[in-house]
Amino acid sequence: MPNLADLTAVPGAPGTTPPSAPAPPARRPKRRGRRPRRIESEFRTAVSPHRLNSPGGRIVYWTVLVVVVVSFTAAFVFPLYWMVTGAMKSTEELVRIPPTFLPSKVTFDAYAEAWELMDLGRLLGNTALYAGGAWLFTLAVDVTAAYALSKLRPVLGKLILAMMLATLMIPPMVIMLPAYLTVKDLPLLGWDLLNTPWAIWLPAAANGFNIFLLKRFFDSIPRELLEAAEIDGATPGRILWSIVIPISRPILGVVSILTVVNAWRDFVWPLLVLTDDEKMSVSVGIANLSAQMPQNVLIASLVMASVPTIVVFLVFQRHIMAGLTAGGLKG
Question: Where is the composition biased (Pro residues) (predicted)?
């Protein structure tokens, strides 16, 4: 007969043998063939390369490209074209409605009249003097200030740089009156700088944006190069003149171009500080004589006043992008 204890035993109780666990189900053998995967496109553009390489895609691409390039070029170049050709027209043709796209008779008499009647030679000479002096003072002040903040690391240098950059957030018209009072009565010295080139040169040298550009470039110069010069006995001034400035030609070119162009085209500040007719800049002189001149002569004077800045930009345009991006990456 079976034992009563075996019949009444509770599974899992002490002294009892637990039942064996069920065997896990057998795994299915893996298939040797690969499961087809979904092919994702590697190009995330508006038009796929396959469609772009098709005959219709190439036509649409070149059509859109030509239309965009021609439209933007016309938007920027057409005002210059209209100014140059407007000076070649007579006064009657210039005010004709509808206007003529090409001058009926090409003549350069307006340019000769503008040069003689408006005394552009004197005005351009004054402006060249102001722009050249502003360029020299800007390089002397901003380069040394940026070098000190970048490599010499003075006390409270970061605070000084932050205060310089804070001036970029202030509209120029807000500080024009304090700047005028400063130029009229120079602090500590009491000098009156009105109607002198110093009224243009000194404010141009105090430029926080130029100091920031120069400092960013100086930060990218390897410290080991300057330390090697210090070991050889070079002073900080010698290091700046013999090592830092030759390396920094791209950014110095950018600062030079920006300074000369700003000094050449400035109007409001020279109008305030240069009230003498013999010392006016070209922009102020043309504005003062505009009401007395025919329209074609006025346009001719504007063309001749714009030629120097356009030539400077066309000659040195590659230095602008090269200098602005030179200190952006390290390594």
Answer: 16-26
pLDDT for res 37: 52
Query: In a 3-state reduction of DSSP, which class is residue 248?
Result: coil
Domain that holds residue 249: 112-326
Share of the chain above pLDDT 90, in %: 19
- Whole-angstrom Cα distance, residue 132 to residue 148? 24
Note whether residue 84 is domain-resident: no
Query: For the chain, how many structural domains are there in total?
Result: 1
pTM: 0.73
Please check whether residue 11 lies inside any domain of the structure.
Answer: no
Residue 176 belongs to domain with CATH number: 1.10.3720.10
Q: Is residue 298 part of a domain?
A: yes
With residue 93 as reference, give the H or E element that holds it. helix 91-94
Task: Please state, in angstroms and rounded to a whole number, the distance separating the CA atoms of residues 203 and 173.
Answer: 14
Instruction: Please indicate, yes or no, if residue 128 is contained in any of the structural domains.
Output: yes
Each residue of 229-254: pLDDT tens digit? 888 888 888 888 888 888 888 888 88
* 211-234 pLDDT per residue, tens: 998 999 898 888 888 888 888 888
Asked if 115 and 121 touch (Cβ cutoff 8 Å), the reply is: yes
Helix %, strand %, coil % for the chain, to 5? 65, 0, 35
